[in-house]
Design brief:
Number of helices: 2
Order of helices and strands: HH
Strand content: under 5%
Number of domains: 1
Shape: elongated
Number of strands: 0
Helix content: over 70%
Distance between the termini: 18 Å
Structural class: mainly alpha
């Protein structure tokens, strides 16, 4: 039981850290290209690209965090 709880906590922590840091990285990358999805009230192609960068960052960050945090539990 404790082993299941430990694994679940590690997965949850990896997901949370990966999503947040990945989203921040995607937002930062968009800002480097001059696209600030968060601060813009408009909906156009540039903001959609900014949103896609944030969402891709979430997925990539989650993948990377799981790889790094759960590599010894394979």
């Amino acid at each position: 039981m404790a082993q299941d709880f430990d694994g679940a906590m590690r997965e949850g922590l990896a997901d949370a850290i990966g999503f947040v840091l990945g989203a921040l990285a995607g937002w930062w990358l968009g800002r480097q290209f001059g696209i600030d999805f968060i601060a813009s009230p408009d909906w156009n192609v540039r903001q959609i690209v900014g949103l896609v960068l944030i969402v891709a960052g979430c997925g990539g960050g989650r993948f990377l965090a799981r790889r790094l945090m759960l590599k010894d539990k394979a």
